[in-house]
Predict the 3D structure of the following.
Amino acid sequence: MKPITLTMTAFGPYKDKETIDFRDLKDHRLFVISGKTGAGKTTIFDGICFALYGQASGEDRTETKALRSQFADDDVQTTVELTFDIHNRRFRVLRQIPYRKKGNKSDTLGRCELFEEKDQQFIPAVDRQIVTEVNEKIEQLLGFTHAQFSQIMMLPQGEFRKFLTSDTGNKEAIMRKIFKTEPYQKIVDRLKVKKDKANAEYLREKQLSDAILHQIPAKLPVRDSLLFNELQSEYPNYHQLVLGLQQEYEHHTAQSAETHKEYTRLYGAHNEKQQELHSARLINDQFIRLQQREQELQVLLAKEAEMNKLEMQLQQAERAARLEDLEQQVQSNESEWKKRDKSYSEAVISLSHAEKELKAAKLSFDQEQAREDERKEVKEGLLKLQNLLPAVSGLADQRQKLDSLQQKVDQLEKALAEKLHMSHVQQQSITAQKNEMKELETSLEQYEQLVDELANTREITKQLNSYQQQLTQRNELKIQCEAAKQTAEDVAASYQALENRWISNQAVILAASLHDGESCPVCGSKDHPEKAAGSEKEHITKEQLDAAKLELTEKERIYHTKQAGMQQLQRDIEAAEAELRQRQVEPDRDYQKELAALTEQTAVLRNKRDMLKQKKQQQNQAEAAMEEQHAEIKELEQRLNELTGERETKQALYQHALSTIPEELRELSALQQQIKSKQSLSEQLESTWKAIQQKLQDSSTEKTKWELREQLEKESLAEIKEKMDQSQALFAKRLSEEGFVSEKSYTQVKLPATQRQAIQHQLREYAQTLHTLKSSLEELKQSVKGKEPADLAVIEHQVDTLKTQYEEAFASYNQCKAWEQAAQGLSAELETSKSREAELEKTYGKITNLYDIMRGQNHLKISFERYIQIEYLERIIQAANIRLRDLSNGQYELVRSDRQEARGKQSGLGIDVHDAYTGQTRDVKTLSGGEKFNASLCLALGMADVIQSFQGAVRMETMFIDEGFGALDEEAIQKAIDTLIALQQSGRMIGIISHIDEMKEAIPATLQVTKQKEGYSKTKFILN
């Protein structure tokens, strides 16, 4: 990368637009950047680095907003623009920093653009002018990240020494970025994850094996056998445990068969006695219910008189209920009459009060109206005094200024005429340029729309391609799913047929064990008239059925898996279709063809836009000059008008001032005192008059309001009184019609609706209960006719005894069966777990050994990544020593250190220095400041050589060095200059920030940075 021009606006100490054209160096490739401290020398490096990467050059300048110039005007945007050459191609990159204007709550918009020059035109180098794409393109062109660029091509103050003196950990981080060894570190990270996972799986399986052993005493009864003798030993043998579990399984299988036979016999006897007890209970229950029904009937008959009384009360309450609506209407009217009467009284009182207030307000109004002449007199006096104020304010010095003003007016008129002529000529030129730009802008009106259409069409094309792939995948998956479903259904049908045959076989096997006189274990019957029969060919084993079941489960799992995948794919297709519908995609349109056409149209318009941009730049420059000229003309006109007006005003004031001003008011203080007094009196009189007018208006409005209110309330009261009398008369008439002699008799029999309903329900329930009892009593008498109660206690005792015996037998059978299954299950689980535990332990050991080797857990403390980095470091040191031997007169040579870091830290990237004068090798930190600078510079140059040798596409045509020469003596400075001169002879441009006079004298080209008295800076190249 070779810089051509750098333009900084409102950046650091540069207030206005500052352009550094490196072409001014001509044939000089080595130059010094000189200037006072704080003038902005390092800011030049920051500008180049910011333009390329959006960041400053040093680690202490990471906040980009702080790069905005403190001297810049609020409307000037902070902008850095860099034009550079690389690989015989020219590019221009521009970046703007967002900032907050005064009074705004949000920042301005930032900007980032990258263009390439082709055929003397700059065209966009990226599809979208956004930060991410520009950064990626810059890194692709230069071959460096920001960190690598700062370490190799731009060496900020003191930062390039870090690589020399830092420990292995820091060097590793730096070389990881420069030589891209991150994949080797990621291998270690992945191995650690695998190691931890393998260890967790091994420990989990080991815990599972131990848990199985701890379950044995809980799941199996302890007895004197091989299994429990082995468990009590300190180190149980795995094979003996498996053999012991097999013996336990056989033992409990035999016990299970014996207990099942005893349980079957006891269960049959209990069923027979249970049937006998059930019959006896039914007869006894009928006798008890007959006695209860007779007692309930006597209780109901005793309540008959009470029910007749309730029925009469209900009839009277029903008559009263027909008058409830009229009674409520009378009460409502009476309540409304009382409310209206109260409102009418309040309106009468308020009306009387309003009349009194109005009378008082009229009296005050008449008194204040009589003072109208006094108010007018005060206002006229105040106006006369105010008219005298301008004349009194300035009488002195007017005459002697008139001649001077006339002379200035003549000079300004002559200068204004010359400026107007020049402005007219320049305006004609700008108008011609605007016409050309207008034609270009007309042709670019559709550009933004085309760009949006291009992006939208590109996205639609991508979505359509994805959608077609999903449809194809769905068809394939549908065929697979249907095939899997058919296979599962076939296997299910085969399994169902096999299961039916197995169940039939079980019936045949059970029938073969039945004998006349013995109870059936299923139904308990001792007679077996029709036992199931079958042939030997139909015999199906449990193992065959289980195998078929496993096959069916596997086929169903395959089908459900494909069905789930089909459903998920269908959801994805529906989502894609919804998005296509939302975009209003037309299936018949050829979007590929439209995409090609839009791309071509956009490229044509983009070229026109670049042409328009160049013309706008020219137009802006012309308009800027025109604005400056207009500002000058405006300033001249304004000054001329001011002077002319001032002259005329002073002339008039001088002629008429004395004749218009009374003698007693020629002093300004006396006139102001009288104006103040008059003004205060006028304001007081006007305030009182306005207050009285407002009060009279308010009182009149209030009286009118209450008059209307009193009339309305009076009419409403009469209306409700008439309505109340009518409802009372109607209620009295209906009382008589319903047979009530008075309102009191009506009130006595009135009942709420809920109470009436309750009485109705009580009477209806009584009648239904009486009828039901009589019917039930007759049925019970017929059912117990000719029978006697039985003694249940004896039969229940016999049933309980048989139940206890068969339950104990069944529990013994279940326990033996559980022990049998537990022994079998424990044996299988133990074998599986121990086998997996051994396999996992072996895998964990292999991964752990590989992980330790890769991360550097060895006697050298060198990881695999660092082993790769050592090769790069050896080459860097070798290249650095070529220059360091010359700079140190053969005294020093850098060597890689094999010593291990303190406290067991990772090692391998340390650097020592070999002193040929003493023959000793020591740490580079023991070098003096100047020696460290020479060693660091050589190391940086060596690193640059190595990077270029490994990355052929990377061309380092430029290098910037910030300070560091102040610690060198004269001889060392001269050798450093010779080294840099030899380096720049290879074609590199080298810029050095230095305050050393010897450096300035030895290097003929200087970029001088000058700080102005206002605080901001300017630059210029000086060639000797």
About this structure: DSSP finds 23 helices and 15 strands in the chain. Residues 405 and 643 are 6 Å apart (CA to CA). The chain has a mean pLDDT of 79.
